[in-house]
Amino acid sequence: AAHLSTIKERCLAHLLDAGCFSDCVQLAVDSSFMPTLMQAVTKHMDQGARDRALVMDMLSSTVSKRLEKHDARLEVERRRLAEIDQAEAEAREEKEEERKKKEDELERIRLEQEAMCEWEATVPPPPPPEPEHH
Known about the structure:
Layout: H1 2-18, H2 24-121
């Protein structure tokens, strides 16, 4: 009896696998509805991916154009700052040259004053007496 029950179970399983006891609604869902639904979902997902790629391209293009404009403005500002730095450096050099000239002039004047004081401090020997002419 045990042997017959296993044969019965196996036989019913084979018949079930062969589709003898299939539900027509389940068969319609599996063979028609699900593939159509999967195609629609796949199509929708593909369209969404294309739309996202298009949006990303547009955003990337817009951002890159803005970055180019920003870089150009930054370059103009860098050049302007470099010119200002150059002018400041030149002004500092001129100011240093003027300070050096003034310092040199003060030193020259001091040396001349010392020489003048030295000259004034020296008493020249008296001139030889002149013979008198009678």
